[in-house]
Specification:
Blueprint lengths: L1 H4 L2 H52 L6 H11 L4 E7 L4 E5 L5 H9 L14 E8 L7 E12 L5 E9 L1 H51 L14 H36 L3 E6 L4 E4 L1 H13 L9 H13 L3 E7 L2 E12 L2 E11 L1 H36 L6 H32 L8 E4 H18 L3 E5 L7 E4 L1 H17 L6 E9 L2 E8 L33 H11 L3 E6 L5 E8 L6
Parallel strand pairs: 12-14
Antiparallel strand pairs: 1-2, 1-5, 3-4, 4-5, 6-7, 6-10, 8-9, 9-10, 11-13, 14-15, 15-17, 16-17
Helix pairs in contact: 2-3, 2-5, 5-6, 9-10, 10-13, 11-12, 12-13
Length: about 600
């Protein structure tokens, strides 16, 4: 029931019903009043005509008998109209009344002396009185009384008192009321019929539109309404379908733009964060999420994930509507931070911050400056010696041919050292640029290492260092590699180990298998590389001898070249401290590069 009242059909039905009921009620009131007045007036006019006729008949009775006069007058009067003729003294001259309540009614009329005493010709009196019923005993009814004075043939004044029951008027009013109620019932039926008829023409399409709107709200933008009418409902359905298509297009467009923006933000190397006006984070890309996690421990403000320096920049950008850009060092990292305000019409709704990690750039700048300094330092000594000894020869400072030859030999050695340095620099640059070429071929790793050990056996003997090889019963193991490049790696490692191992020490090469890898180690018993320098041994120009002495120092590029060669073989190289003393270099090759 509540569903009907809450629907358009119920509201339309109730509205039309109330409207019809109200109109019928007003019309009934006016109609009943009009009919009551009309019938009363009609009764008055009828009584006046009948009274005039009776007065004439009474005055003309000389030509007819009393019985015939009574018969004529009774024929004139209807069933509910009666009359008496009285003189000025209240005596009844004639009575035209046959009901049982005749005497009681006549007594009531005669008691109203104003109706017949001293009548004035032409002045009629109309009055309503309560008199006994003509048809029922002990029942009082409302009567309409007319006093019609006239002059008798004898010249005396008399009055015709007409009285008629208003029950006929009431019955007419009642009939009218019944007709009105019947009309109201018919109107109710018709209203109900038309309301539910309209529901099929109006509310049914509206209900379909409601269901379609719910489907749109759920994201089903393919919802389509059939257009079966050409009126406003049909136009509304057409507009709804157009709205659905346009909404689908706009949603797809927004989705594409969102995906495009998300792809751009995700693929950016810079961290991007969007802030609300209250400094809360609205949007961030994956790089920003990682950065915020990194800053979580660094941040001293418990209520915001940003470092205080960045938070102050954000406050300034939002408060003063200015773009802020600065480079900060946060937690040992360098960032270029740019924060710009976001506007919504004329008001600021937040800010967008871009964080660019410049740590690698700073490292590259430092490497570049260190590289220039190292190359300058490495070249300055041989160039100075070349210049000094060549000037000595030119100035003929030498006193003997033996001294001259010694100077020439020094110049030759220093030039070869400069050539090695330049060659190593070029090779390293080529390797780091990805232009290293490997001529791989099957190689017996044990035979290869034995040849390298044999190559350095005399050098080790001269340095009073014990050089040995442990193969772990892998004599038949074959690998596919560039023999010349691997020889360059292990030549550098063994040469370094021998040079940095004191007299009586040992350098040991070992070959063994580990999980998925073939490991070749070069271990010495020298002073070893300090623990703090181990992460930097494969950088350019690293030297264990910080004083860079010429006696045991190389170019400082050997380990950097060795690392690039191992990585080109899909392997790796690392350095660790020995258990007691010395340094261990571990060269690893993956098993998928092995051919056993």
């Amino acid at each position: 029931m509540m569903r009907i009242w809450n629907s358009i059909v119920g509201k339309l039905w109730a509205t039309i019903l109330l409207l019809v009921s109200f109109v019928l009620f007003i019309v009934t009131l006016f109609l009943l009043e009009f009919l009551d007045n009309f019938h009363t007036k009609q009764a008055e006019e009828s009584l006046q005509r009948e009274a005039a006729t009776i007065s004439k008949i009474v005055n003309d009775q000389s030509g007819q008998t009393a019985d015939s006069m009574h018969q004529i007058i009774e024929d004139i009067l209807d069933m509910e109209t009666n009359a008496i003729v009285v003189d000025q003294q209240g005596d009844i001259l004639y009575s035209f009344h046959t009901s049982p309540s005749k005497e009681e009614i006549e007594d009531k009329l005669l008691s109203e002396s104003s109706l017949y005493e001293l009548p004035e010709l032409g002045k009629q009196k109309m009055k309503e009185m309560i008199l006994p019923s003509l048809t029922e005993q002990d029942v009082m009814e409302q009567f309409l009384i007319l006093s019609y004075p006239f002059e008798q043939a004898s010249g005396e004044q008399a009055s015709v008192l007409m009285y008629q029951s208003l029950d006929a008027v009431h019955r007419t009013t009642k009939s009218t009321t019944n007709i009105v109620f019947l009309s109201a019932f018919i109107a109710f039926i018709l209203t109900t019929f038309f309301a539910f008829f309209l529901s099929t023409r109006i509310t049914l399409p509206l209900r379909k539109m409601k269901q379609a709107a719910f489907e749109l709200s759920k994201g089903n933008f393919d919802t389509h309404l059939p257009v079966a009418q050409k009126d406003e409902i049909g136009q509304l359905a057409t507009a709804f379908n157009q709205m659905g298509r346009q909404l689908k297009y706009n949603i797809e467009l927004i989705k594409q733009e969102k995906e495009q923006l998300s792809s751009i933000l995700t693929s950016m190397t810079d961290a991007v964060v969007t802030f609300n006006q209250d400094y809360s984070i609205l949007l961030k890309n994956p790089q920003a999420e990682l950065l915020l996690k990194k800053w979580y421990g660094y941040n001293q403000k418990s209520h915001h994930p940003l470092p205080k320096e960045v938070f102050h920049m954000l406050e300034h950008a939002i408060s003063f509507a200015e773009e802020v850009e600065d480079e900060l060092e946060l937690g040992g990292q360098f960032y270029v931070i740019s924060i710009s305000p976001l506007y919504s019409e004329n008001s600021i709704r937040g800010a967008v911050a871009v964080f660019r990690d410049m740590t690698e750039q700073h490292k590259l700048d430092k490497l570049r400056s260190d590289f220039i300094a190292n190359v300058s330092h490495e070249l300055r000594t041989p160039i100075s010696m070349l210049q000094g000894y060549s000037e000595a020869i030119i100035d003929d400072v030498v006193s003997s041919e033996e001294e001259r030859m010694e100077m020439v030999q020094i110049i030759h050695d220093e030039s070869k050292r400069m050539s090695r340095l330049v060659t190593d620099l070029l090779n390293l640059a080529r390797m780091e640029s990805g232009y290293i070429q490997l001529n791989k071929s099957p190689l017996s790793i044990v035979e290869f290492l034995e040849r390298i050990v044999t190559k350095f056996s005399q050098v080790a003997k001269d340095a009073k260092v014990d050089l040995s090889l442990k193969t772990d019963e892998l004599n038949t193991l074959m690998i596919t590699a560039d023999e010349d490049r691997l020889e360059q790696v292990f030549t550098n490692l063994i040469d370094n180990a021998i040079r940095h191992t004191p007299d009586g020490g040992a350098v040991t090469l070992s070959v063994y298998r580990s999980t998925g890898m073939l490991d070749i180690t070069v271990a010495d018993t020298g002073v070893g590389i300090p623990e703090k320098d181990l992460p930097f041994v494969f950088e350019r120009f690293y030297k264990a001898d910080k004083a860079r002495t010429r006696g045991k120092g190389g170019t400082g590029l050997g380990l950097a070249i060795a690392k690039n060669i191992m990585e080109a073989h899909n392997g790796s190289i690392l350095a660790t401290r020995g258990d007691e003393k010395g340094t261990i270099f571990i060269c690893s090759l993956p098993f998928d590069a092995l051919n056993t």
